[in-house]
Amino acid sequence: MRDAAIAESPWVRWLLIAIAVGFLALFLLLPLLAVFAQALSRGLGPYLSTFADADTQSAIRLTLLVAAIAVPLNLVFGIAAAWAIAKFSFPGKSLLVSLIDLPFSVSPVVSGLVYVLLFGAKGVLGPLMSDWDFKIIFAVPGIVLATVFVTFPFIARELIPLMQEQGSAEEEAALTLGASGLRTFLTVTLPNVRWALLYGVLLCNARAMGEFGAVSVVSGHIRGVTNTMPLHVEILYNEYDFVAAFAVASLLAGLALVTLVGKSVLEWRHGDELAAVRRH
Amino acid sequence: MAVAITAQGLGKVFNGTAAVDRLDLAVEPGELLALLGPSGSGKTTLLRLVAGLEAPDAGRLLFGEEDATRLAARQRRVGFVFQHYALFKHLTVADNIAYGLRVRPRRTRPPEAEIQRRVGELLDLVQLNGLGKRRPAQLSGGQRQRVALARALAVEPRVLLLDEPFGALDAQVRRDLRRWLRDIHERTGHTTLFVTHDQEEALELADRVAILNRGRLEQIGTPDDILDRPATAFVAGFVGEAVRLAVEAAPGTIRIGAQPISIPTGDVSGPAALFIRPRDLLVCDDGPDALSARVIAVRRTGPARRADISFGPGLPAVEVELPATSSVRKGDTLHVRLTAVRLFSSSRRGDDGRQS
C-alpha cells in the first residue's frame, strides 16, 4: 500500500500512534468515563432521582427551549448568509465573511458581556428596556441572544465552502427552465446542501445546549428560572452535590456522543457531498 | 416556431472591461450559428446575455419582433446547455428532463401523463431509452450532455443556446455528438447559437460562423466565407492553422525577408501581414514567382507529410504540405509558390486591422 521510501520506520509510527491514543484516552475518554462513574457512584436510584428535582427539570426545559429558538434562527441566518456569499458578489462581502467568524474568535465571556453592556440596567439600551418593562439580562431573552451569538457561525461555515464549490450553474439551469427563485432554492439549492446543512445543525445544536461562558454572564443563575443545564451542573457541583452534578453532566455528555455518532454517520454516508466542508 | 435573434449595440462591462462591446448580430430563424473566438473574446458572455443570465449595460435584444432586453431569464423560453451539464444531481434522468414542465404554473402545466409521454419522446430523441431511472452520476459525459439537451428541449424553447457543449468530452465522443447535434437540429429546427473555441467544430457544424475578438464581431459568414475570404487580419490568423509573416508591400509585389515576389496586393502597401496556411504553398521549380526556402524539419501527419520551412533568417517557420512519397529532407532547399494570398495592412493596433 504505502511506499516504503516515504513511510516512517515502524517504531516511529507506533510511537506516534501510541502518543495520540494515549493522549485521547487520558484527556477525552477518561474524563467521559469519570462523568458516568461519578453520576452512578451511588447506584441508579440517586442518579434517577436527580431528574425528579424541579430545578433540574427546569434547567433541562430551558436548555431545550433555548436550543429550539437559537438553532432555527441560525438555520435561517446561516442559509441566507451562505447563499448571499456563495452565489453573489457585493460590496462588503469579505467583511461579512469575517463577521460570521467573529464569535469563533471572541471569548464567550466577552460575547455575554456585550449583551450586559447593551441591555443591562446601566447599559446603552437598559433604560429603554426598563421603560418597556422588558427584561433581557438575567432573563430568558438574554440567554437566547447570547446563545444565538455564540452559535452564529456553525451552519453558515458548513454551507459556504460547499455552495462556493458547487457554483451557480444548476440554479441558472433551473432559471432558464422557467423556475422561480423560490422554486429554484427549494428544488435545486437546498437538496444540494442538505447533508452539510444537517451536519451544521447538529454542531450548532450541540454548542447551543452546551454553551457555558456567554450564558453564564447574562443568566444571573436564578434557580428554576434562568439556569441552563451547564449552569446547573456548576451550581450543583459548588454545593458538593456530586451525584446530581455528574448526573446532569452525563446528559450533556450523552448529547455530545449522539452528536458525534450522527456526525460520523453523515461523514460516512455522504462524505462526498461534505468533502468541500472543512472538518471540525 | 423558429425565431430570429437580433442584438443591437449589445454591451456588457465587467470590472471596467467591455466583455461584449456594442455588438450587432442577426441570427436568422432556424439557423445554427457558431460563436467562435479565443478565450476572453466575449462569446460566452454574449450567449449568457441572450439567455438572460447576464443583464446588458447597453443595447437591445430581440427575439423575433419581441423586445427581450429586460425579460427575466425564466420568461425568455430559451433552452440553455451548459459546458459542465449542470444536471440536477439529486434527480433521476427522467425528472431532470421533466423539470422545466413541472415548474410551470398550474394553468400551463401539462398533466402528469403528458409529461411522462414528453419525457419518453425526448429520451428517444437523445437515444437514452431505458436510462430514465438513472442518476446523472451513473452516466458517461456524453450521455449527461444528451440529458442536458433533452432537458433544454423539453420546455419547447424559442431558441437553443449551447455553451461549449462538447468542451468537457474526449475527441471521439465529440465527433459523434457533433454529427448527432446537427441531426437533431435538422429535425427540430430551433434557432441555435452555440459557443465554441474549437474552429473545426464550428466550421463543420454551423450554417454560419461568427468570429468574436475582444467583445467585437470580426466577421460573420458561412464556413466558406470565413475560410476563403477572411475579412480581417484577426480572422485570417485565427482560422486554418495560419502562420503570420511580416512583409513589405508595394503595388503588385511584396518582400518576404530578402525575397521579392509579384502577387496581387490590392491597395495594401507598406508594412503588412501575410497569412500562410499549409495548403497555400505549392512546391515548384525556381522562377520569378517562386520563393526559396530552407527545410527545417519534416514529419508525417496522417496521409501526408508536412515540412517546416523558413524563407530567411529571423522569419517564423511556415508549414508546407507534401505528398507522402516526397523525399524532401531536413536541410534541403525548396521552391514554393503562393496559391492563395491573404494580405492585410499592419495597423497600429496590431491584428485588428481591416483588409484595405
How many domains, in number, for the residues of chain B? 2
> Span from first to last CA of chain B?
41 Å
Largest sheet of chain A: none
Question: Radius of gyration of chain B in whole Å, from Cα?
Answer: 24 Å
Shape of chain A from CA axes?
globular
Largest interface: A-B, 16 and 27 residues
pLDDT < 50 runs, ≥5 residues of chain A: 276-280
- Helix fraction of chain B? 10-25%
**Strand segment count of chain B:** 20
Percent of residues in helices of chain A: over 70%
For the biggest β-sheet of chain B, the strand order reads 6-7-8-3-9-10
Question: What's the CATH H-level homologous superfamily of the largest domain in chain A?
Answer: MetI-like
CATH architecture of the largest domain in chain B: 3-Layer(aba) Sandwich
CATH class of the largest domain in chain A: Mainly Alpha
Structural summary, described in words:
The complex is a heterodimer of chains A (280) and B (356). With 280 residues, chain A is an all-alpha fold. The radius of gyration of chain A is 23 Å and the shape is globular. Chain A folds into 2 domains: 39 residues; 227 residues, MetI-like fold (Orthogonal Bundle). Helices cover 78% and strands 0% of the residues of chain A. In chain A, α3 runs antiparallel to α9 and α5 packs parallel to α10. Chain B is an alpha+beta fold. In chain B, the strands form 4 sheets. A 6-stranded mixed sheet of chain B has the order 6-7-8-3-9-10, with helices on both faces. In chain B, α2 packs across α3, α2 runs parallel beside α4 and α3 crosses α4. The C terminus of chain B is likely disordered. Classes of the chains: A mainly alpha (280), B alpha+beta (356). At the A-B interface, α8 and α9 of A face β6 and α4 of B.
Concise structural overview:
The complex is a heterodimer of chains A (280) and B (356). With 280 residues, chain A is mainly α. Chain A contains 12 helices and no strands.
Entry keywords:
heterodimer; A: 280 residues; mainly alpha; MetI-like fold; B: 356 residues; alpha+beta; Rossmann fold; six-stranded mixed sheet; 8 helices; 33% strand; elongated
